[in-house]
Write a structure and sequence with these properties.
Oligomer: single chain
Order of helices and strands: EHEEEEHHEE
Number of strands: 7
Largest sheet: 5 strands, mixed
Strand order of the largest sheet: 2-4-3-6-7
């Protein structure tokens, strides 16, 4: 379902679109297995999340579904009045950082690829931070 067809609570918007992600990440989008435009509870200061979903071993001899391995992105809803300034910061700073993180992740060793990883961008009082928050 496209983001346009989902309903958000009144007063909330998504700070990015799928077009923003595709334009910024280009060919890296082939490694993205899912983009989720979240409609649940307010994510607080989180404005963008990406997770590496590693291959999972299976005990039933079916192996790993290769379509499940890759990056999953979460775009949380934010208050509508904050959309324009948040979008500007995400497009100019967070998306280039995301591009770099994904590129480094794809060239990382096997040990890195076999574990799950979460990377979050937070925006607090106009200050953008990002870091790994791997479980």
């Amino acid at each position: 379902m496209s983001a346009r067809n989902r309903h958000l609570p009144p007063g909330y918007s998504w700070p990015l679109t799928s077009t923003d992600l595709t334009e910024s990440l280009g060919p890296l989008m082939t490694h993205v297995t899912e983009v989720r435009f979240l409609t649940g509870r307010d994510a607080g200061t989180i404005v963008l999340g990406v997770a590496w979903v590693p291959p999972r071993s299976s005990n039933d001899d079916r192996g790993t579904d290769p379509d499940s391995v890759g990056f999953r992105m979460d775009v949380p809803m934010i208050p509508t009045p904050a959309r324009a300034p948040t979008r500007a910061v995400l497009r100019t700073r967070a998306l280039p950082q995301l591009h770099t993180w994904m590129t480094q992740a794809l060239t990382a060793g096997e040990t890195w690829h076999l574990a799950p990883h979460d990377h979050l961008w937070r925006l607090t009082d106009g200050h953008l931070t990002h870091r790994d928050e791997t479980p």
